[in-house]
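step=encode ok
step=design start
structure_in=
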């Protein structure tokens, strides 16, 4: 039974990682190609799919909503202060829907494929410091955003923002309780056990 539970967790994490990556590419490539709303719609549909499959959807909804609010706030500030300019989006305004959808999509990973960060707030901070700017660099290369000048200052601000946001979101995920399984795989485990 324990091996079956681990299999359910592994399948849930793998499925979650795929949903998360597809959502990331939908948002970033959608923005780069001038279809930011379509990319956001696909990412939000994948987020809804995640919520419908999650064993504890209430926890996931709270986490997704919190991350979307953090993303709206942080990236609106980034845009307002010229740290980032989002493709096809007027500078100095609220962050575009696609970037907020990307934050929501990111939150879906915290109880699943990124659950190894649980209770590791310093590691989450370091990962945010490095990984946040790297993700935006990838988005810039694909044409979704551009950095303000001086570029190194913009990267440093992004790193600082993510070094605070990621451990805060991990702490919220921890506070909301354990997740990490999709009910469909749990049902398959139970069927195999009987």
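sequence_out=
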């Amino acid at each position: 039974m324990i091996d079956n539970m681990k299999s359910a967790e592994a399948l849930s994490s793998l499925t979650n990682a795929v949903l998360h990556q597809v959502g990331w590419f939908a948002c970033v490539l959608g923005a780069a190609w001038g279809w930011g709303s379509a990319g956001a719609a696909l990412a939000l549909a994948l987020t809804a799919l995640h919520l419908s499959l999650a064993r504890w959807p209430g926890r996931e909804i709270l986490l997704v909503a919190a991350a979307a609010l953090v993303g709206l706030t942080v990236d609106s500030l980034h845009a307002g202060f010229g740290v980032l300019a989002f493709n096809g989006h007027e500078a100095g305004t609220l962050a575009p829907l696609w970037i907020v959808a990307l934050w929501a999509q990111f939150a879906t990973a915290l109880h699943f494929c990124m659950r190894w960060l649980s209770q590791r707030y310093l590691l989450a901070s370091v990962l945010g410091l490095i990984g946040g700017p790297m993700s935006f660099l990838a988005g810039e290369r694909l044409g979704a955003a551009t950095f303000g000048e001086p570029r190194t200052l913009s990267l440093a601000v992004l790193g600082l923002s993510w070094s605070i946001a990621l451990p805060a979101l991990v702490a919220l995920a921890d506070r909301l309780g354990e997740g990490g399984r999709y009910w469909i795989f749990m049902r398959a485990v139970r069927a195999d056990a009987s």
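step=design ok
step=annotate ok -> Residues 63 and 172 are 7 Å apart (CA to CA).
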